[in-house]
Automatic annotation (TrEMBL):
It is found in: Cell membrane. GO terms for cellular component: neuron projection; plasma membrane. This is G-protein coupled receptors family 1 profile domain-containing protein. Residues 42-315 form the G-protein coupled receptors family 1 profile domain. Belongs to the G-protein coupled receptor 1 family. It is a multi-pass membrane protein. It comes from the Eukaryota. It comes from Acrobeloides nanus. GO terms for molecular function: G protein-coupled receptor activity; peptide binding. Keywords: Cell membrane, G-protein coupled receptor, Membrane, Receptor, Transducer, Transmembrane, Transmembrane helix.
């Protein structure tokens, strides 16, 4: 199985450049630390915001919680790679690899689950309503353990390394198990989730386009549009929150594809090069590849790590409701007294507004009742003279 920290840690890749010195290796470790720390801070902000608000009740956000936790675990292990914990012992190295690979699987399939949720919501909305009572956390309990079981193969596919001042574990290259596991790993961790993301998003785009064409062909489209516009204005924040949630379901998979594709293209080329052409120049520290290619590989890894560190940026960019909730949630945590005073003021204003509305409605009702009674009195006055005339005749 592919060793994330072996081929993915920038210090290891930079060994391809024979003129690299310790300073360049230290700078790449600093980059890993910066990515890990910034990503962890952003993920903590996202998780606290979701758990301290109503966002956690949304089905989509339950997948986002799993995604953010998996990304945070990956970033913690990335910091261990930067501090070279895997240089200490073989056991620590293997455990680090196992956690890295497992969290990567959970992250990829959480994004695939998000895309499936969006596809059902837009293309088959009635089915989504039928399954609204199903707890998404129970569904995730069925598939989340699978990566933990599959990646137990790490303990078979990794062996001890005797290279001084290097990691204490390495992939057992040249074996049949390694030739089978590495392509399967790429397929299950990237190609299959990516295929699900691309196909379902294309189907969603086709559904939205067809709905727009049918709407424009409808002769009553203009009236329906004005009615929907008035209804949306009455709905207020609820409509915008729903739109933001749908936008997140689109932006997260797109960012996943953009940031992961260069890294997995390198991995696919490396697997073909090693297993078909029996050339390990891309994965071997002594491969002697061109410096430009080495830098491109480094950039691919930077983008790959950025996928696990950009959750809060993606959520904030996708949803104005999320940005507002971040401010409210952290105000409640950091300034509880001020937040409580603000909430009391808002509640009093809302109570006053409701009372004013009720008073206004009662005045209107009384006015209508008075008008109605006056009309009844006038009608009775007109009927009485007619009755008197008929009696005289």
């Amino acid at each position: 199985m592919f060793s994330v920290s072996d081929n993915a840690s920038l210090p290891e890749i930079s060994v391809h450049h024979e003129d690299m010195n310790d300073e360049s290796i230290d700078s790449s470790s600093i980059i890993l630390i910066v990515i890990g720390l910034l990503g962890l801070v952003g993920n903590v902000i996202s998780l606290v915001t979701i758990f301290h608000s109503r966002l956690r009740k949304s089905a989509a956000n339950q997948y986002l919680i799993v995604l953010t936790i998996a990304d945070s675990v990956f970033l913690c292990m990335l910091l261990m790679v930067a501090f070279k914990v895997d240089f200490l012992s073989y056991e620590l190295c293997v455990i680090e690899e196992y956690i890295l690979m497992t969290s990567s699987y959970v992250s990829s399939w959480s994004i695939a689950a998000l895309t499936i949720e969006r596809y059902i919501a837009i293309v088959h909305p009635l089915k989504q309503l039928r399954y609204t009572h199903v707890n998404r956390s129970k569904i995730m309990l069925y598939w989340v353990p699978i990566p933990f079981i599959f990646n137990l193969l790490q303990f078979i596919n990794l062996g001890p390394s005797d290279v001084p001042n290097d990691r204490k574990c390495q992939v057992l290259s040249g074996t049949l198990l390694q030739a089978i596991i590495e392509p399967a790993d790429v397929f299950l961790c990237y190609l299959l989730p990516c295929l699900i993301v691309v196909v379902l998003n294309l189907l969603v785009a086709a559904k939205v386009e067809d709905s727009g064409k049918n709407f424009l062909k409808n002769p009553d489209a203009e009236g329906l549009s004005s009615d929907f516009s008035r209804h949306s204005r009455r709905q207020g924040p609820s409509a915008s929150a729903s739109a933001g949630s749908t936008r997140i379901l689109l932006v997260v998979p797109v960012v996943y594809i953009l940031l992961n594709t260069p890294f997995y293209i390198y991995r696919i080329v490396d697997i073909i090069n090693a297993n078909v052409f029996k050339n390990d120049a891309l994965s071997s520290p002594s491969g002697g590849i061109h410096p430009v290619i080495g830098q491109l590989i480094n950039i691919a890894h930077y983008l790959y790590y950025g996928n696990f560190a950009c959750d809060v940026i993606v959520y904030a960019f996708s949803s104005a409701h999320f940005r507002k909730t971040v401010i409210i949630a952290w105000q409640a945590i950091l300034c509880p007294h001020w937040h409580r005073v603000k909430q009391e003021l808002l509640n009093s204003q809302a109570t006053f507004s409701r009372r004013t509305t009720l008073t206004h409605r009662s005045i209107i009702v009384h006015a209508k009742e008075a008008t109605h009674l006056k009309q009844l009195d006038n009608s009775q006055v007109q009927i009485q003279p007619r009755q008197s005339l008929s009696s005289n005749e």
